[in-house]
Amino acid sequence: QYVYVNYGTYQDYEDLVKAKVDLAGKIALIKYGGIFRGLKIKRASELGMIGAVIYSDPGDDGAVTSENGTETYPEGPAREPSSVQRGSAQYLSVAPGDPTTPGYPSLPGVPRQSVNGSIPDIPSIPISYLDALPLLKALNGHGPKASSFGKEWHTGGLGYKGVEYNIGPSPPNLALNLVNEQEYVTTPMWNVIGIINGTIPDEVVILGNHRDAWIVGGAGDPNSGSAALNEVIRSFGVALQKGWKPLRTIVFASWDGEEYGLIGSTEWVEEYIPWLSHAAVAYLNVDVGTTGSHFTAAAAPLLNKALIEITQLVPSPNQTVAGQTVGDVWNGHIRTMGSG
Fold first, then answer.
1. How large is the C-alpha radius of gyration of the chain?
2. Is 72 helix (H, G, I), strand (E, B) or coil?
3. 3-state SS assignment for residue 73
4. Helical H segments across 116-214, by residue range
5. CA nearest 249: which of 227, 282, 223?
6. What is the pLDDT of residues 221-236, one digit of tens each?
7. Which are the contacts of 199, defined by CB distance < 8 A and separation ≥ 6?
8. DSSP reduced 3-state for 174
9. Strand extents, DSSP E, 71-188
10. In 3D, which of 320, 317, 332, 294 has the Cα closest to residue 62?
11. Is 340's pLDDT higher than 60?
12. 8-state DSSP, 67
């Protein structure tokens, strides 16, 4: 049996417990969004659930949906119904990096620790909303409706497909089989590091991005960011050839294994933390540099002012008004950064 648990946030689970929905021994059917996927599974396990199925609900896609008449990919920008979002389910907020070497670098020959408490102890799998539809429809009429809970439960976007968003549990004559076979291995990873020594040796600025991707190509994540980072590196190379030297030391980093659990960057920091703890001034990360045709931004709050000023200097590629800048056509919203 399975239970629909909304986004699988701590509060969502609390709402279900308060409503006396039986969770123990059940599989959680969870929407992507709200919090990191690993935490959805972690709380499900803590409450005695035995598995998790996570799907992407078009209700979180804003106005760009098939329901609103937008063509789905590749004909248009709306989510393709069979698309699946993959990603790490490691408990990154507790144990980022190599889960077998918490707090110290994962180097050859080091002792390896148990991964208990670092990765899920119940199986999980991501699916598309196309595959989630029959599971959601099978819950119609079983248990309370999501609409009987708080507003955070009211964002489902499959009502037009016949989904009533009942909680469940699913009827006892319906079995959901969840199988996810994983191969756990210890395998080499490589970070690529470049350094330009500055006049001040104990002040270091680090520019970085990961280069591994969940999909072939990784056009947006991470290679749009990698393209920008490589151009910055090329530009510094030209400046060095002309005799320039930075005041602060600059480190360029191409991280490996980010998608698996922030592995490359975490292990590098753990190896060089005595140096970084007194020398690092700032770390600038670019991951998804560019996607789509409209400018949006996500940054650490310290960069907000600089970002706003720069957009007023960059010409807009769509010159509907002569001299128009990116800042002129941007709504000015800067999202907070996330991970995974």
1. 23
2. strand
3. coil
4. 129-137
5. 282
6. 999 999 999 999 999 9
7. 245, 246, 247, 248
8. coil
9. 124-127
10. 294
11. no
12. T
For residue 44 the two structure tokens come to: 């499900």
Q: How many CB atoms lie within 10 A of CB 242?
A: 6
For residues 140 and 133, give the distance between their C-alpha atoms in angstroms, rounded to a whole number.
11
d(CA 104, CA 139): 46
Enter the tokens of residue 18: 């308060």
SS3 62: coil
- Dihedral sign for Cα atoms in the order 200, 204, 207, 209: positive
Rounded Cα–Cα distance for residues 214 and 264 (Å): 15
CA neighbor of 147 nearest in space, from 19, 318, 296: 19
Q: Which helix (H) or strand (E) holds 37?
A: helix 37-46
How many other CB atoms are there within 10 angstroms of residue 218's CB atom?
Answer: 18
Given a cut of 90, whether residue 293 has pLDDT beyond it is no
Tokens of 107: 């180097």
Q: Look at the alpha carbons of 222, 223, 226, 228 in this order and tell me if their dihedral is positive or negative.
A: negative
H or E stretch covering 229:
helix 223-241
Q: Considering the chain, what is the average pLDDT of its residues?
A: 94
